[in-house]
Amino acid sequence: MGDLTHLVAVNVLMMGGANLCCMWAGLAKSFGSLLAARIFMGIAVAPADTVAPNVIGEIFFTHQRGRAMGCYTVCICLGPIIGGMSGGYIAGTKGLAWIHWVNVILAAILLVACATLVPETLFQRFQTTPSSQNEDLIKSEGELDDETVENVASTSINDNLNQQTIYGSMLKLRKYEGNFVQKFLAPWKTLRLPGVWMVMFWYAGLVGGVVTITTVGPSLIAAPPYLWGNNSGLIMTGGIIGAILGFVATNLSADRVIVTGSKLQGNSFVEPEDRLPIAIPGLFLATTGLWTFGFCAQNLGPEHMWIGMQFGIGMLCFGLMQAPSIGFNYVSALNHE
Description:
Elements: H1 3-27, H2 31-44, H3 47-59, H4 65-93, H5 97-116, H6 130-141, H7 146-163, H8 166-170, H9 180-189, H10 194-222, H11 237-253, H12 256-265, H13 276-298, H14 305-320, H15 322-336
Helix pairs in contact: 1-2, 1-3, 1-5, 3-4, 4-10, 4-11, 4-15, 6-7, 10-13, 10-14, 10-15, 11-14, 13-14, 13-15
GO molecular function, one term: transmembrane transporter activity
Protein name: Major facilitator superfamily (MFS) profile domain-containing protein
Subcellular location: Membrane
C-alpha cells in the first residue's frame, strides 16, 4: 500500500475517536469530565491539520497544490467561524450539551465520508509490475519483440484487476510495509530546516489569532454596550467574507508563479522560494487585521467599534488563506530537494 492509504486510515481512525470523545463531552456530568473529553477531542481532530495537507500533497501535482490547499484552508478557517456563529444559537435554545451532540453528528458524517468516498486509496497495488515481468522473460528467453512485450503488459494488468476488487481489498488486514520508526521521526527531522520554523510560526500565529478572536469576540459583543445575546456570533461575519475573498485571491495567484516560471524557463524546475513573495501582501494584511481587532476591542465605548472588529477578523482570515497554500507547499518542495 502507498503512503496515501496509511494517511487515510489514520484519518478514519482518529475521526472515530473524535466521535466517541464528542459523545463523552455530551454525557459529561462534571467540569473535570468535560475538560478531559475536550482534551481528547483536540487530540482526535489533530489529523485535520497534519494528515490532510499530506494527503493533498500526495494527490496533486506541484502546479496544482496551491489551489487545492486553498480549498482545504478555507474549510479549516470557516470551521471555527461558523461554529462560533451557530454555537450561540444552539446553546441559547437547546443548551450547552447540544453543542457536543452536533459535534457527534458532524464527526459521524466525516467518518463515513472519509471511509467511503476515497476507496481507490485502499486498492492493493500488485507487487509484480509488467516491466519486471518483461525483464525476467528477457533474461530467460533472450530479446523479445514489441508484440510480445505488449501482450505481457496488457495481460498482466487485466488479470490483476479482475482478481482483486476495491471492496475486496477493503476487507483484508495487511501487514504494514513501511518503517514505523522512520515515519515517526520524519516530521521531527524537518525541524533542522529554517524554512520549516518560518512557516510553522507563520501559520501558528495566524491560526492562533483566529481561534482567539472567535473565543473573545462573541464574549465582548454579548456584554454592554452591545448586548447582542444569542446573536453575538454574528461578529464573525467579517471572517467569512474575508476567507472567501482570500480563497479567490489565493486560487488565482498561488500556482501562477509556478506555471509562469516553468513556461519562461522552458522546463518544469522552479525554486521553492519563488512562491514566497506572493504571501507578503496577505501576511501584512493579516497582521494589520490583528491590530485592528485589538484596538477596537480595547475601546468598546463607541457603538460603532464592532464594525472595526468585523474588518479586523476579515483581514486576518484573508491573510490566513495564503499560509498553507504558499507556506506548506514551500516546505514540501524544500524537503524534496
